[in-house]
Amino acid sequence: MYEIDSKLAELENTGSPIQVALIGAGQMGTDIIAQVECMVGMDIPVVCDLSLDLAEKGYRVAGYTGEIVRTNEMDEAIEAVQAGKKVATENYRLAVALPTVEVVIDATGSPEMGARVSLDCINNGKHIVMMNVECDITVGPILRQMAENAGVVYSLTAGDEPGSIVEVYRFAKALGFKVVAAGKGKNNSLNIYATPDEWEEKAKARNMSAKMLVEFVDGSKTMIEMAAVSNATGLVPDVRGMHGPKCNVKDLTTVFATKEQGGILEKEGVVDFGIGDINPGVFVIVTTDKPRLIEGLVQRDMGNGPNYLLYRPYHLCSIETPITAAQAVLYGESTAHPMKKLTSECITVAKQDLKAGQTLDGIGEYCYRASIELADVAANGNMLPVGLAKGAVLTCDVKKDEVITYDMVTLNEKSVLLQLRRIQDQMYR
């Protein structure tokens, strides 16, 4: 990776480490602070969270023992940073605009906050590391274009599955392979009707919120992540919601093959996922018609043909995120980013019968789940992107398993996310 370790060591030796602002000090954000505390050539002078206690706790958990200044005022923050102190703030605009900051990591998980933070980054000339995949699949193309126009990098993060998959995908494409499928392992069985109540105890045992766990169980997170991969690569879902077969690593090349080859796919060039021992890995299935390369792939146990497996057996989530921050500052490159327009959309599907006047809750809760669909199909069907669903008010009854459309809801007109999405639709559809 361009001797990134040496570059960071040089920055440390010259007293000019990369300056990072972190927005969101939850589980992922705290991991990032802890990882950067172990590194050379990078520093997080400011952490923003709705809870100052959480922001400060992130530093303490990471082992920082120095002074932390709590402030929402820019002058105080600048003075604190110049004195070598850390800043905890509730003011994301302060964190983004702090003069020394070069790159901002959005670890909020809120699509609306992701849009607001990204716009502030663009206006202030800061690189954007977007851990907020929900925001990316909603307005990623326009944010990426605006960032490029401003001369800054917009990037999904290394370590999260979309970033990890795209890294393997880029490797495969650079070598000239044809990509048959790209995907991930799902670490629990799929229950599309899961709600937080029934998963409360298991969530506590894993030290996470029930809502967050349900995002994974009901498939929403997988749909969102693979939509991000689709939008970054042009690979498509073979069917709405993907196949999601039960299979293990040893089965990947035969399961994710065309039906003519005995597999499950109608076509090549798809995104999908498997339920088995694949997790926490990601995979890209490739093929080639060159006999010499086929011989080499078979000899190296990549498969027996016609498809071959490129498998990365891990993704380290937020632990890898600092690499993307460094990549953006040092080389002006992303780990992954959406193309000019959406290839796939994550649509909103009712988990239960819903009533007119009901306000939709969030992803991983009670009202709906996400499912992946081709962007053109979703647009033609007026389907509501899942990133816009939270807070929408139903104008009619909706049946369980019915796709919620724009004309079934009233949306929040004050939403920056919504306004960006409308501009994106006008420009890139």
UniProtKB/TrEMBL annotation:
GO terms for molecular function: NADP binding; oxidoreductase activity. Residues 345-410 form the SAF domain. Transmembrane segments: none annotated. This is NAD(P)-dependent oxidoreductase. It comes from Massiliimalia timonensis.
